[in-house]
Write a structure and sequence with these properties.
Structural class: alpha+beta
Bound molecules: 3,4-dihydroxyphenylalanine
Mean pLDDT: 91
Shape: elongated
Distance between the termini: 82 Å
CATH superfamily of the largest domain: Bira Bifunctional Protein, Domain 2
Strand order of the largest sheet: 1-5-6-10-9-8-7
Number of domains: 2
Strand content: 15-25%
CATH topology of the largest domain: BirA Bifunctional Protein, domain 2
């Protein structure tokens, strides 16, 4: 019997199988109830008493060997089946679609890069603000309509905690802590209590510019604006300044550019005027400088503010503001090649 066991041991050690069915057949042959090992166990009853110990040990060794061998074969064939059948080696390496930059980010970054060439650094401030930074420091009278509930979102009915309605608040934050010269650009999101439509939204984006130094002139402002307009909309672009009013600038102006659709000849887009409005600007009111602790007898400067959505509309003809915040991938994918 010992010979039979040893022969089986050699046979099992040499087993091989190329697939899972073959392994299962081997398991049945050696380890099932009617398999070779069970058979030996049954025969064990007839073994002479003095041989029982040696043969018992040998049968147990055989059983362990068979179990381990068959488990090893099972694992190997499972792995082989996986690699052989489930992996398609002809598949494209990276089927994941790349994302695109949001059009507003593209436009904002372009504005920043143009002003950076003129030495403007980026500054940021909080979106949840107080009355001082958004209104009072910027020369808004106590009864100015922009403070009204209809325009401004207040938080928790507290009139001193509000969502900023413009990025001009960052001017104050920087001037309070930075001695001039100051040359900053403040991009950010702003909020106004407006009904959402194609032309208005309760939040949008602005970029504010501020330059404070000694002897800054309106001509410096005008040249900066002309440079910006030509870099953004092309070297043929013309600008014009119309007198306007903002509490924080004196004098104030609004800037138009020659319509970049018809080149200034007049079309439906520019309402046949040849011009489209793009930003507000002016010389910083001395009251604002003083409110921020800057001596208005020594220093002066200019400020400008523009809507990023407005610039994006002019560049990409997006006529419905809501598209910018709905994140419809069909819209966003249109900007894949705009980078
Ligand atoms: N803060 C103004 C707004 O929200 C935009 C603006 C106009 C900013 C003129 C300026 C400026 O700095 O000089 O409508």
């Amino acid at each position: 019997m010992l010979e039979k066991i040893n022969a089986l041991k050699a046979e099992i050690a040499a087993l091989s199988a190329s697939n899972q069915e073959a392994v299962e057949a081997l398991r049945l042959k050696y380890l099932s109830k009617k398999g070779a090992v069970s058979q030996l166990m049954a025969d064990f009853r007839n073994v002479a008493a003095d041989q029982k110990k040696a043969i018992g040990i040998a049968i147990n060794e055989l059983k362990t060997l068979a179990t381990e061998k068959i488990n090893a074969l099972k694992e190997a064939t499972e792995m082989a089946d996986d690699t052989a059948d489930d992996i398609d080696l002809t598949r494209t390496a990276s089927p994941v679609r790349l994302g695109t930059r949001h059009p507003l980010s593209l436009v904002r970054d372009e504005i920043i890069s143009i002003f950076r060439r003129l030495g403007f650094a980026v500054a940021q401030g909080p979106e949840i603000e107080d009355d001082w930074h958004v209104f009072s420091s910027l020369n808004f009278a106590d009864d100015h309509p922009a403070r009204d509930m209809q325009d401004t979102f207040f938080i928790q009915r507290n009139p001193d905690v509000l969502l900023r309605t413009h990025t001009s608040s960052v001017q104050t934050r920087v001037m309070e802590h930075t001695p001039p010269p100051i040359r900053i650009l403040c991009p950010g999101r702003v909020y106004r209590n407006e009904a959402i439509s194609a032309r208005a939204h309760c939040f949008f984006h602005q970029v504010e510019g501020l330059y404070i130094d000694k002897g800054v002139s309106f001509a410096d402002l005008k040249q900066t604006l002309l440079y910006f307009a030509r870099e953004m909309f092309g070297p043929e672009t013309k600008i014009r300044l119309r007198p306007s009013y903002f509490p924080f600038t004196e004098p104030s102006a609004e800037m138009d550019i020659s319509c970049n659709l018809c080149g200034g000849k007049g079309c439906g887009f520019c309402k046949h005027t040849g011009w489209v409005e793009i930003l507000g600007c002016g010389m910083v009111d001395p009251n604002v400088l003083e409110a921020c602790g800057i001596d208005s007898k020594q220093y002066n400067g200019f400020a400008l503010g523009m809507g990023v959505e407005r610039i994006a509309n002019l560049k990409y003809r997006v006529n419905d503001l809501r598209l910018f915040s709905e994140n419809d991938v069909r819209f966003l994918r249109e900007f894949t090649h705009a980078h």
